[in-house]
Amino acid sequence: MGEVTTIGLDIAKQVFHVHGADGSGAALFSRKLTRGKLLGYFATQPRCLVAMEACGSSHHWGRELQRMGHEVRLIPPAYVKPFVKRQKNDARDAEAICEAAQRPTMRFVTVKSEAQQASAAVFRARDLLVRQRTQLINALRGLLAEYGLVAPQGRARVAQLIADLEDPACTLPEAARGTFLVLVDTIRSLDTRIDGFEREIAQRAKQDDDARRLVTIPSVGPVIATAVLALAPPAQSFGRGRDFAAWMGLTPRQRSTGGKEQLGKITKAGERTLRRLLIIGAAAVVRHASKNGAPEGSWLARMLERKPRMLVTVALANKTARIIWALLAKGGVYKAPAVAA
Predict the structure, then answer these.
(1) How is residue 155 annotated by DSSP?
(2) Is residue 58 exposed (0-12), middle (13-18) or buried (19+ Cβ within 10 Å)?
(3) What whole-number distance in Å separates Cα of residue 261 and Cα of residue 148?
């Protein structure tokens, strides 16, 4: 029997499964482990490659196994699925992970540090509270519309509805008015918590050298700069900016065959939070250029002349992603290109 070189680890909450293989790919063992016995088991194994699917707890286990001297590789679940043989179970999943890890062209996810995960948690929590605030505002709008109270679209316009509710002369039934005021208090509480997260994000952007360089890019502010550093893999793991933009899902989906190239909508791959933030930032630049005009002869001006506005927005987000990669991988600060004569 050969020496184990690769172990596929199928992780869960309490029950784990390991599948070991030697250098030729031949299976050596397959066994089930409980959570409490996992680290003790790997402490007895020779230092080898341990592969897992990239998921919520994989970074934690990856760090623990790296401390023991093992080489850890995280694989996107979509790349493991083709290696699962027929019936799906923990043993087959661990075997598929082990086999996928041995492919020479396989792509892997970098194990995140605790600091990176802490920064990412700030964005996750902020996004959750923003969604909850939007739900409450929409609910308040819908309920007040039944009483004939409406306001223009936009979160800022809700202030007038709230003022009408809090007006002592409000003619709404007292039972309904009391319910609506509870929603208003919850919205204000969420505003306070979201503002706190945004202040923390802005403070981190001021303290980080890379974030200060990224905010020199048009459409990139403190939120986007710190989000890239917290959520994206190291820039050095991408060979070029084009790969970085493709990882974010800002490239067209291909359905090409027989030498005929067919491009569709963006793929929406990678980190959706980063993609959404970049598109929002690009939309602000495009909106400003549409109203006030872009510099004559600039890339943005030429694009707006011949392409739909939404297409230009996504193209600008793609361009911004490539610039971000260049600054992180090669250093320096953003320098605006010279406008064509």
Answers:
(1) G
(2) buried
(3) 53
Residue type, 184: V
Q: How far apart are CA 52 and CA 97, in angstroms?
A: 6
Residue, of 169 and 312, whose pLDDT is higher: 312
Distance CA 191, CA 130 (A): 8
Q: What CATH superfamily is the domain 6-101?
A: ATPase, nucleotide binding domain (3.30.420.40)
What's phi and psi for 254, nearest 5 deg? -95, 135
Task: Please choose, from the candidates 124, 143, 122, the residue with its C-alpha nearest in 3D space to the C-alpha of residue 132.
Answer: 124
Helices 174-207/114-145 angle, 10° precision: 150
What's the whole-number mean pLDDT along residues 224-251? Answer: 90
The whole-angstrom separation of Cα 304 and Cα 27 is 58
CB 309 within 8 A of CB 216: no
The DSSP-derived string for 85-107 is -SS--HHHHHHHHHHHHT-TT--
Q: Which residue has the tokens 């002592």?
A: 168
Which residue type occupies 193?
R
- Count CA atoms within 13 Å of residue 123 on its CB side: 23
The position carrying tokens 């230009």 is: 312
pLDDT score of 183 more than 80: yes
Question: Where does residue 274 rank: exposed (0-12), middle (13-18), buried (19+ CB within 10 A)?
Answer: buried
3 state SS for 228-270: HHHHCCCHHHCCCHHHHHHHCCCCEEECCECCECCEEEECCCC
pTM for the full predicted model: 0.81
Instruction: Kindly report, as residue ranges, where domains of CATH 3.30.420.40 are found in the chain.
Output: 6-101
Q: Looking at residue 338, what is its pLDDT?
A: 66
Read off the pLDDT of residues 46-67 as tens digits, 9 standing for 90 and up: 999 999 999 889 999 999 999 9
